């Protein structure tokens, strides 16, 4: 078995390669079995290419995404559908939203030895126009804000949370709704909409918790379809949306559970895929049940009612 540690050198605002390397060396110094490698990514999707190459060359591969949700997404893209590969998250990023779905047990993912001694669970995966995701995909003003944060963060004098504030302000002025055609479970929803999200996990955007009961191992996606509202209406709505109070706003938010949603627009849409961006006028989001082997610390209460662990 090979253990591959993928480090994103810009996750969390600094390069964690040195400290990851030190932790890995210490973990394997006691005679732990298996080969290991710490690999620092060089460009977007480099992690995916590295995993594909390593998976073809070894019998069993365990991948540790050492970064944020974007790093985890790249690793999931490389690992999904490969039975000899299991992936996990060693959080070194800013948001680390996906592991928040495990509640207080998310802190166990920061224990490298617990991951090395972990067990493999089958988690569901999202396919969004061919791009894999394990957490949440969304279309609408939230996606536009999240995607533009990266652009504004490169401007002089704008640092950290300031980029999010600028992006939110600019996109709010551009408008909070757009005409869409949405098909889910054979039903058509059309008209102005502010936001649509597909939840496999339960947190995104640095703390938004739109569907608290969403689980990445239940074989179904939770969709929220938010009707188009005015700017003032959106300000009133967004707080409840962020706290998972969709059931108290049925006039504006429709909750649907299913395996697929299709979104069409006459103009190009920005789509958030686990914090990464894709674009298109026709967006198809579908579930791949049990699509990735996910390595977790042993004995997690989260999985108490879940099927037994699989071997990878």
Brief rundown of the structure:
The chain is α+β, with helices and mostly antiparallel strands. It has seven helices and 13 strands.
Structure description:
It is a single chain. With 312 residues, this protein is α+β, with helices and mostly antiparallel strands. The chain is 25% helix and 36% strand. The N and C termini lie close together (9 Å). The model has no long low-confidence stretch (mean pLDDT 91).
Q: What distinguishing features does this structure have?
A:
312 residues, alpha+beta
Largest sheet: 13 strands, mixed
> How many distinct beta strands?
13
Mass-distribution shape: globular
**Strand-and-helix sequence, N→C?**
EHEHEHEHEEEHHEEEHEEE
Continuous helix count: 7
**What are the segments in which pLDDT stays under 50 over at least 5 consecutive residues?**
none
Please, what is the average pLDDT?
91
- Relative helix content: 25-40%
Q: What layout of secondary structure does this protein have?
A:
Layout: E1 2-7, H1 17-28, E2 35-40, H2 46-57, E3 61-67, H3 69-79, E4 85-91, H4 112-116, E5 119-128, E6 131-133, E7 136-140, H5 141-152, H6 161-174, E8 178-184, E9 187-199, E10 221-227, H7 231-242, E11 253-258, E12 260-273, E13 276-296
Parallel strand pairs: 1-2, 1-3, 3-4, 4-13
Antiparallel strand pairs: 5-6, 5-13, 7-9, 7-12, 8-9, 8-12, 9-10, 10-11, 12-13
Helix pairs in contact: 2-3, 5-6
């Amino acid at each position: 078995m090979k253990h591959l540690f993928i480090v994103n050198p810009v996750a969390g605002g600094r390069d964690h390669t040195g400290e990851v390397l030190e932790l890995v060396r210490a973990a394997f110094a006691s005679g732990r079995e298996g080969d290991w490698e710490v690999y620092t990514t060089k460009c977007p999707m480099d992690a995916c290419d590295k995993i594909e190459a390593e998976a073809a060359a070894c019998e069993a591969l365990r991948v540790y995404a050492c970064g944020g949700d974007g790093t985890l997404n790249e690793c999931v893209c490389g690992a999904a559908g490969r039975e000899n590969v299991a992936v996990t998250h060693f959080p070194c990023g800013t948001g680390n939203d996906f592991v928040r779905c495990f509640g207080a047990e998310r802190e166990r993912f920061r224990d490298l030895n617990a991951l090395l001694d972990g067990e493999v669970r089958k988690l569901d995966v999202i396919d969004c126009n061919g791009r894999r995701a394990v957490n949440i995909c969304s279309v609408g003003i939230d996606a536009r804000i999240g995607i533009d944060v990266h652009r504004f963060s490169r401007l002089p004098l704008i640092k950290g949370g300031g980029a999010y504030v600028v992006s939110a302000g600019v996109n709010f002025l551009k408008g909070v709704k757009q005409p869409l055609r949405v098909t889910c479970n054979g039903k058509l929803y059309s008209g102005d909409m502010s936001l649509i999200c597909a939840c496999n996990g339960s947190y995104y955007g640095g703390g938004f918790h739109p569907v608290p009961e969403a689980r990445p191992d239940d074989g179904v996606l939770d969709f929220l379809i938010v009707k188009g509202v005015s700017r003032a209406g959106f300000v009133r709505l967004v707080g409840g949306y962020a706290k998972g109070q969709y059931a108290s706003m049925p006039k504006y938010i429709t909750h649907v559970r299913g395996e697929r949603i299709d979104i069409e627009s006459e103009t190009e849409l920005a789509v958030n895929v686990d914090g990464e961006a894709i674009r298109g006028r026709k967006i198809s989001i579908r579930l791949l049940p049990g699509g990735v082997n996910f390595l977790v610390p042993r004995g997690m209460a989260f999985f108490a009612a879940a099927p037994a662990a699989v071997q990878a």
